[in-house]
Amino acid sequence: MHDHPPSTTCLTDAERLNRLRLIRSDNVGPRTFRSLLQHFGDARTALERLPDLARRGGAARPGRICSEDSARAELDAAGKIGVSVVAPDEAGYPPRLATLDDAPPLLGIRGAPDLLMRPMIAIVGSRNASGAGLKFAGTIARDLGDAGFVVISGLARGIDQAAHRASIASGTVAVLAGGHDRIYPPEHEDLLSTLLEHGGAISEMPLGHVPRARDFPRRNRLISGAALGVVVVEAAHRSGSLITARIAAEQGREVFAVPGSPLDPRAAGTNDLIKQGATLVTEAADVINAVEPIMERPIMLGAREDDGEPLDFEADSSDRARIVNLLGPSPVSLDDLIRMSGASPAIVRAVLLELELAGRLERHGGGLVSLI
Description:
This protein is an alpha/beta fold. Helix content is 41%, strand content 12%. The chain has 14 helices and twelve strands. The protein has a nine-stranded mixed β-sheet, sandwiched between helices. A three-stranded antiparallel β-sheet has the order 10-12-11. Strand 7, helix 9 and strand 8 form a beta-alpha-beta unit.
């Protein structure tokens, strides 16, 4: 069973090095990276333009640009522990993850690349799981694996580790919040080593990066983004698993929830998901029947806000001032900025990119932006 992967490419060593430098430079996130690459054509040219663009955005001083030596050292260190650094459309990069607006421009992968190209189902849930929840997570993971699906999860305590352990033989993928050499929680290093024998692990973070609280929502978007759908087994109110479910819905992925007793707070979140329209799941067949029609459709890149005309960095001072004045701490949409400023979409996007490179812009979900 294979997903429908896009046509594969292969970066030159020089371009891979420069792309790593670009994404590791200050204030360059996945969306900014893609805009720069689309406009300038290659990472080296984009790197050369960073200081000027940040200055236009009002930066008091140039941001740090990752050096060639630093990027080369990261690639060498990754290779020594068996991590390949791949771009979207390259072999081993999960094809559904590549369709995201904020897909990692480079992804560190470890394990079996072929496995990462197969259809995946995410299973997530409470770290403080009940015995029944752990048992169900293991059962559904095993059954999905037997049906040819790869189980993907976050290597966390509780439901995540139960899903991983039950699908080791059929293949499972761990998504890491830190670098490949900074496993969290530390007691799951043995589990990771075992699942890598038949499975894989992915991370967008550099080696040596110790995961922080804000890194887990970033990780969660990879878990859901690589999958056809997300199964939430147990989740209390305000659980991280509910964040994953929300992100999955925003990404257009299927959301499944396992019902639980209304007397168990660990089921409160999953029961709410069902009320909100998530598919109720009591066995693997519920998931398989829902995703089979999706698997018949080829994987397509979604419409993206910067896929139209190229950026226009020739905005005059009045255009730039008008756009900046419309921004504030409250998030506003790109469409509203274009309408209210009277400037072209290409100029508005260019000014926003300059502000982001200057560290003055924050991007929110749903294409909203605000001034820092």
